[in-house]
Amino acid sequence: MIRRFAVSLGGRIVAALLQLAVFALIARHLGAQDLGVYSVAASIGLSALWIADLGMGTRVLRGDSDDDSRRALATFLIVRVLITGVFPLGGALIVSGSSTETGLLVAASVLYVTGESSGDVAVGLLQGRRRSALAMTILLSRRVVALAPVALFAGADAVVIASAAAGMFGTLCLLVVSAPQLGRPMSLVTLVRQNLGIMASSGASTVAQLDVVAVTSVLGTQGAGLYSSALRLLNPLNLLVTTMMQVVIPELASATPTDRRRVFRRIRRLVLIFCLALVACSPASPLVIQFMYGDGFGGAAPVAICVTVAAAISAFAQVHLAWFYATSVPRAVPISMFGAILIGIGAIWSLSVLFGLSGAGVGLVVMHILTMVAIVALWRRYAKKESLDE
């Protein structure tokens, strides 16, 4: 497990750096105004994708290879191929009254997030099969495909080309990786019923992407662009925890209850140290924003500090959520997460009205605190129940 973690962490560090470079170049090519349009389209696309994901993005990490899992994967693949064509076209039609450039930008943004989601499932499939080296090779290839056009060319056209190329490549990776594991498709209703708990909890996390829409409704696309530029730090900051979860979930899923608790306690201690380090480093995050995007994004500095703190809170919550993903997801988990996130989005909107961009950042922290408290409280209840049952 340690070797797989080292390979995965190394690959994800490089991938995160490449992704930061991609977004920094996109921001410089588009400017804050068009970046806001691009980010809102991506946010709405991601929020819609939680349904189309059908819970498979997390389920594949368990590494199951029985006939039921193969049939589930086949059904998911059919749905994913269909939406890869439909979602970008739908995005372009929604803004058809705007300029052609805006329509292309929206379609490319939606295609990009759809392909990213597909590529992540491909990586998850390989991680579940404990093939971390190949998983990281695919992840890095996706980042290079996205980086090349924005590094070689300039302007909005480069962003459209990069987004479309990366989106299609991510879908291609999923097709190639999943092909040897496909069975006869099951009914869509059966798949949804099997994955409902995972779908609901993943959906709650995806709905959190609507924070950009809430900010846009108050501060406009300019404010959304600044907010999104800082928000892009969230995933790289959670890199260690995300990598750890992809390696640990297969181990937790196959372990006995006693071994599961032992592994979990060890991982949680490591993550807690990481969280405290993030909070301590948060005052330096505005310097990262200025370095990445230039002086035109200096207004995002207060949000950057809040994003770093939110990343620490989210990391601690993710560890406890991994326990449920490796075992089972009770109905109370997604219900509590949805409630916390919806209240958090309301806080982001309200504080944006009162305090502008700084208020939006504070609202983001509030949302992650509420979500973390809900997940940890439920984990304590169900982990204690498992201990008593044993």
From TrEMBL:
This is Polysaccharide biosynthesis protein. InterPro entries: Poly_Biosynth_Transport. It comes from Microbacterium ginsengisoli. Its main location: membrane. It is a multi-pass membrane protein. Keywords: Cell membrane, Membrane, Transmembrane, Transmembrane helix. It is found in: Cell membrane. The chain crosses the membrane at residues 12-30, 36-56, 77-98, 104-126, 133-152, 158-177, 270-293, 299-325, 332-351, 357-379. It comes from the Bacteria. One of its GO terms (cellular component) is plasma membrane.
